[in-house]
UniProtKB/TrEMBL annotation:
Protein name in the entry: Probable membrane transporter protein
Membrane topology recorded in Swiss-Prot or TrEMBL: Multi-pass membrane protein
Source organism per UniProt: Acinetobacter albensis
Lineage: Bacteria, Pseudomonadati, Pseudomonadota, Gammaproteobacteria, Moraxellales
Localization terms from the record: Cell membrane; Membrane
Membership in a protein family: Belongs to the 4-toluene sulfonate uptake permease (TSUP) (TC 2.A.102) family.
Length: 269
């Protein structure tokens, strides 16, 4: 039964990865949080375990998603090369920061962040991209990648909720922003997962079938299914209008954000 749950999570996460360029983390983290809670894992590490496992699975979903986007010529590879060093370094550092935060603190951070991004995406959905804007210098892109990497590791996501708005703000159309974000999810996921395994190895609380803060069984089950469904999500992304895609993306972020805000504040009542 546990494996079936992980396969189901992977199917939804993979589709979201291809559709929104978010690496599936916004689906994986809340569901894994629920699953690990029902498995009676220590509450002190459940959130960290969900984040680390999410990043590990994003390695697979990113590869599948970006290959589908690349076939359509939508990935801006020069932008990816500029962002990648910062994304990787930032993600490793972000895993270290997350290790020092409590589970409730992480829930509130993720919740408010998701709602904030959703607000900007939804109300900007009907606004056309300002093609007169251009991307900043290579150095500034690398620094932006660092900030995105840190936040993405803390939130257990592939960076889409930050990379997509960043690229849109600088004149990149939504489909290419999503595709490039999917590529950027790979360095974030690799460095972030290594970070969560590294920092999690020193925790006093030990969880079965895990390396640090990465649950191996969940990683395998989710990865297998998400690799298949990410390609389907990418196909759908290229059939939707830019406005519809932004609004769907905002709706997903809002649902996840409100869920974690509720979980974070419920411990005080």
């Amino acid at each position: 039964m546990e494996l079936i749950i992980y396969l189901w999570i992977g199917a939804m996460a993979g589709f979201a990865a291809g559709l929104f360029g978010v690496g599936g983390g916004l689906i994986i983290v809340p569901i894994l949080y629920i699953v690990f809670t029902h498995l009676n894992y220590d509450p002190a590490v459940i959130m960290h375990l969900a984040l680390g496992t999410s990043l590990a699975t994003i390695i697979v979903t990113s590869i599948s998603s970006v290959s589908a986007h690349h076939k359509r010529g939508a990935v801006l590879w020069q932008v990816f090369r500029n962002l990648a060093p910062g994304l990787a370094l930032g993600a490793f550092l972000g895993a270290g920061i997350a290790d020092y935060l409590s589970g409730q603190g992480l829930q509130l951070l993720i919740g408010f962040f998701a709602v904030w991004v959703a607000y900007g995406m939804f109300f900007g959905a009907s606004k056309p991209v300002d093609v007169t804007q251009s991307l900043p210098s290579n150095t500034k892109q690398m620094l932006a990648g660092g900030g995105i990497g840190v936040a993405s590791a803390i939130f257990g996501i592939g960076g889409g909720s930050l990379t997509v708005p960043y690229l849109l703000r600088h004149g990149v159309v939504i489909q290419k922003a999503v595709a490039t974000s999917a590529a950027g999810g790979l360095p974030i996921a690799v460095a972030g997962a290594i970070g969560f395994m590294w920092f999690g190895a020193n925790t006093v609380v030990k969880v079965p079938h895990s390396i640090g803060y990465v649950h191996i069984y969940a990683f395998i089950g989710i990865s297998v299914m998400s690799f298949i469904t990410a390609k389907l999500g990418a196909k759908v992304a290229h059939k939707l209008s830019a406005t519809m895609l932004k609004k769907c993306f905002a709706g997903l972020l809002t649902a996840v954000g409100l869920y974690f805000i509720y979980q974070g504040v419920s411990v005080y009542f």
